[in-house]
């Protein structure tokens, strides 16, 4: 885990710095990012100016985005796709990394470059990779474990059984909070160029695509023919879950506590139903996106299949009604947890976004923070839905 914060945090904003002769620094590759002292003297490469941030900016938690020194030039890997970073999305995991020290830096480091939600444009790509300069792409978050476990061995790293996977911006690999990053071709996903900046929604949409795949699999196993879905939570995950439900032709009900702001309007703009309380809503399937225990129990009680996509966080413990277990057993209910996504889910997400109303998707991005003030992205504001950091 990340040790305590230093008295004065030096935060790398990872801008590309031009050197004499017009040569720009290369992004650290996944394979060599641990070696911060490997200077490419032949090309006189260096990277990333340092900007100072007050230590008290981080509350009392360690921040995994501080570095003791700037990146030096890393020899470019010819087998990776090199990408100009455009946007990085911010989610609750990033906030936990900043506030609570969740996350693990690369071996030998006490720092982790943040952000796992990416969007970029290809600068160079290996021959035969299927990518060309100018392609709009996102990078996959998780990498399979090196053993590998049975799941990782077949490309289902989101079901890793031994926990030795790595994740960009979360666990042992630097994130996509860079103006230049690189990725092996098999961990890059090409997007419809018409999406533009909306492509930054691909990673959260991939989590939702997997949740829907799990829900549909459970329905088939339980002989449920679903026509309606209850979604708890109208954050980015909940709203994207609602979008994919509408695209599937479901009757969609979304429950969230807010009464105004963009969320109710975004739900209704889909043709879905917005509720502040579950009330008498019943559905075939629930996708639970809050981790709030009372809503979890309500979701299970009201549906045949429940997919849990939310984490509990800091919520206080609540009593558990044993009747919930009776309902699960006697009703042949299915409850499944889901996290992360595989390559097939990223591609499904990219397709769903490409076919969505782009003006509706644009409404999800409620705040755009410039790179030089990226720490502001971690301070939640009342009407935030999806906050992004502009890497330009």
From TrEMBL:
**Which molecular-function annotations from GO does this UniProt entry contain?**
metal ion binding; oxidoreductase activity
Upper lineage: Bacteria, Bacillati, Actinomycetota, Actinomycetes, Pseudonocardiales
Glucose dehydrogenase C-terminal domain ranges (all copies): 197-391
What organism does the record attribute this protein to? Saccharothrix espanaensis (strain ATCC 51144 / DSM 44229 / JCM 9112 / NBRC 15066 / NRRL 15764)
> Do you know which SUPFAM superfamilies this protein is assigned to?
GroES-like, NAD(P)-binding Rossmann-fold domains
Q: Where is the Alcohol dehydrogenase-like N-terminal domain?
A: 78-178
> Keyword annotations for this protein?
Metal-binding, Oxidoreductase, Zinc
User: CDD domains, alphabetically?
Assistant: glucose_DH
Q: Which Pfam families match?
A: ADH_N (PF08240), Glu_dehyd_C (PF16912)
Q: From the Swiss-Prot or TrEMBL record, give the protein name.
A: Alcohol dehydrogenase GroES domain protein
Cofactor names: Zn(2+)
